């Protein structure tokens, strides 16, 4: 079916925000908006013939303009944390806006998730959003032109692709920050979901959630998710409030790096990515003040995120893959979520 466009709302800066709907032949449907290049709805059938929206989100544009939980949006320039909000490139130290304890998280205070992107329909199954980030935005060097493309295919794949170019050397690490609940976004906790992450190693954290720089084997730890595990059987053994950790995976669009399933509905989501890491976040900070779509209260562990990425704080860790993009280079990153039921 052709992609459709309608008005979603008007931003606080008086910009018209479009909503785009992509539908495939099996009844899947994705709804996207210009604000934050956000995936505001994702409808997936189940084994009983029912269809549910499986991503958490806000009921209106105002929610996305105050999106403290980053629901559904593109985060950048750098997803995840940068220690103490600073880094150096070619001997020049850059200071960023601090927004997460002593650190910068997901690009800063008014980062990519709080910007109006320009959407463009491409064919019958794809929408591409563009945002130009000015030199110095949130403290980052260089003007960056970024695109985020969403494609919903007839083989039930949601393909998210990012491209970026810069005028100065700058770290780039883009991802979509959707919270999934395969029982439906209104269903409550995801502790009855099964998860499998094909990672031999993970990156331990300090007390501010910055990787220590070590790469440690998952064997005989709570982070060994190489076989399917019921989240509720493991999450309470994780130090702190739950999972919010980077797993070191094999970059591949042929082999899945993670798989999540919900036995009750039969829905399953497999993940593939070209990046070396994924952050498994179990929505540890949602609380009863979070009022989402359909008047739903999203409580702790009401969804889960699988964020494809360079390792957190890689710009400051010499033994991590570098996330710095140079002028003349092109940042490319593709992540695929494949659904079945």
Automatic annotation (TrEMBL):
Domain of life: Eukaryota
Main location: cytoplasm
GO molecular function per UniProt: aldose 1-epimerase activity; carbohydrate binding
UniProt subcellular location: Cytoplasm
Keywords: Carbohydrate metabolism, Cytoplasm, Isomerase, Phosphoprotein
One Pfam family from the record: Aldose_epim
Listed pathway(s): Carbohydrate metabolism; hexose metabolism; Carbohydrate metabolism; galactose metabolism
Catalytic residues in the record: 177 (proton donor), 307 (proton acceptor)
Residues that hold beta-D-galactose according to the record: 80-81, 177-179, 244
SUPFAM superfamilies attached to this UniProt entry: Galactose mutarotase-like
A GO CC term attached to the entry: cytoplasm
GO terms of biological process kind: galactose catabolic process via UDP-galactose, Leloir pathway; glucose metabolic process
EC number in record: 5.1.3.3
Reaction(s) the record says it catalyses: alpha-D-galactose = beta-D-galactose; alpha-D-glucose = beta-D-glucose
Enzyme class, first EC level, given as a word: isomerase
Record function comment: Mutarotase that catalyzes the interconversion of beta-D-galactose and alpha-D-galactose during galactose metabolism. Beta-D-galactose is metabolized in the liver into glucose 1-phosphate, the primary metabolic fuel, by the action of four enzymes that constitute the Leloir pathway: GALM, GALK1 (galactokinase), GALT (galactose-1-phosphate uridylyltransferase) and GALE (UDP-galactose-4'-epimerase). Involved in the maintenance of the equilibrium between the beta- and alpha-anomers of galactose, therefore ensuring a sufficient supply of the alpha-anomer for GALK1.
Family as reported in the entry's similarity comment: Belongs to the aldose epimerase family.
Cited NCBIfam families: PRK11055.1
Subunit structure of this chain's protein: Monomer.
Record protein name field: Aldose 1-epimerase
């Amino acid at each position: 079916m052709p992609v459709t466009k309608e008005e979603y709302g008007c931003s606080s800066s008086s910009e018209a925000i479009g909503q785009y709907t992509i539908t495939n032949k099996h009844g899947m449907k994705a709804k996207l908006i210009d604000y934050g290049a956000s995936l505001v709805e994702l409808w997936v059938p189940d084994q009983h013939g029912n269809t549910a929206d499986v991503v958490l989100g806000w009921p209106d544009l105002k929610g996305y303009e105050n999106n403290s939980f980053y629901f559904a949006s593109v985060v950048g320039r750098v997803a995840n944390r940068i220690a103490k909000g600073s880094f150096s490139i070619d001997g020049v130290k850059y200071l960023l806006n601090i927004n997460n304890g002593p650190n910068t998280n997901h690009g800063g205070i008014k980062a990519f998730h709080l910007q109006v992107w320009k959407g463009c329909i491409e064919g019958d199954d794809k929408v591409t959003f563009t945002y130009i980030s000015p030199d110095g935005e949130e403290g980052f060097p260089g003007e960056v032109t970024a695109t985020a493309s969403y494609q919903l295919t007839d083989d039930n794949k949601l393909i998210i692709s990012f491209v970026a170019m810069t005028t100065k050397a700058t770290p780039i690490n883009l991802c979509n920050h959707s919270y999934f609940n395969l029982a439906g976004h209104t269903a409550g906790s995801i502790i009855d979901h099964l998860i499998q992450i094909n990672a031999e190693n993970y990156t331990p954290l300090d007390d501010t959630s910055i990787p220590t720089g070590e790469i440690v084997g998952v064997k005989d730890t709570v982070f060994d998710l190489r076989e399917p595990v019921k989240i509720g059987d493991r999450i309470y053994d994780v130090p702190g409030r739950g999972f919010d950790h980077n797993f070191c995976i094999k970059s591949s669009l042929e082999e899945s790096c993670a798989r999540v399933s919900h036995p009750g509905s039969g829905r399953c989501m497999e993940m593939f990515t070209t990046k070396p890491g994924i952050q498994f976040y179990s929505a540890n900070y949602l609380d009863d003040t979070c009022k989402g779509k359909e008047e739903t209260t999203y409580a702790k562990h009401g969804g889960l995120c699988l964020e494809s990425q360079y390792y957190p704080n890689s710009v400051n860790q010499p033994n991590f893959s570098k996330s710095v993009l140079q002028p003349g280079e092109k940042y490319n990153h593709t992540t695929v979520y494949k659904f079945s039921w």
